[in-house]
Amino acid sequence: MSGGAVTPASPPMGGRPAAGRPRLLVLRALGLGDLLTAVPALRALRRAHPDHELLLAAPARQAPAAAATGAVDRVIPVSAPGRSVPGRIDWSGPPPDVAVDLHGNGPASHRPLSRLRPARLLAYAHPPARIAGPAWREDEHERIRWCRLLSWYGIPADPHDLRIPAPERPSPAPGAVVLHPGADAA
């Protein structure tokens, strides 16, 4: 991971950092399980854009998990009720070089990214918005879905690249097992 720990960014933010580093913005503003299914895609984006600052638009509470992926530099806090799409992303300065919709198949999830006028938007196809990405498949597992999206755009992504290393700090509950009981969506 480049740039140290992931912390919520101070709004407004955007454009290029002082060093002139290009920025890649990913929208994945959902729960922990949703973030974890995006790990292979986030890592693929990191490998494909090693010089970019990778910013994740997600709930602020996802920052520690995003840091554990080793792919995300910072979290831009966004929120919306339930599984809704955030209406806006706090961003100022020049548009992102690349924006990636890992939230849905549009158009609602394309809008907050499109409003930022990125140089390149990677998203599932939406002809009315002139987005020529791949076709959405309703029956596809999320981690495969996001890797297929990136592959369509020429970014190799391995849906099995899921492993997150153990934290450096000892567990506050040694020997405990954490079980994610499921999702809040059908």
Tell me the count of domains. Answer: 1
Estimate what percentage of residues fall within beta strands.
5-15%
Structural class determined from secondary elements: alpha/beta
Estimated helix fraction = 10-25%
How many DSSP-defined strands?
A: 5
Q: CATH topology, anyone?
A: Rossmann fold
Low-confidence stretches: 1-16
CATH class: Alpha Beta
Q: What is the fold's blueprint, element by element?
A:
Elements: E1 23-27, H1 32-37, H2 39-48, E2 53-58, H3 63-68, E3 74-77, E4 98-101, H4 111-114, E5 120-122, H5 142-152
Parallel strand pairs: 1-2, 1-4, 2-3, 4-5
Helix pairs in contact: 2-5
Overview of the structural elements:
- The protein is of the alpha/beta class.
- It has one domain (1-186): Glycogen Phosphorylase B (Rossmann fold).
- Helices cover 20% and strands 12% of the residues.
- The protein has helices at residues 32-37, 39-48, 63-68, 111-114, 142-152, and strands spanning 23-27, 53-58, 74-77, 98-101, 120-122.
- A five-stranded parallel sheet has the order 3-2-1-4-5.
- The termini are far apart.
- 37% of the residues are buried.
- Residues 1-16 have low confidence and may be disordered.
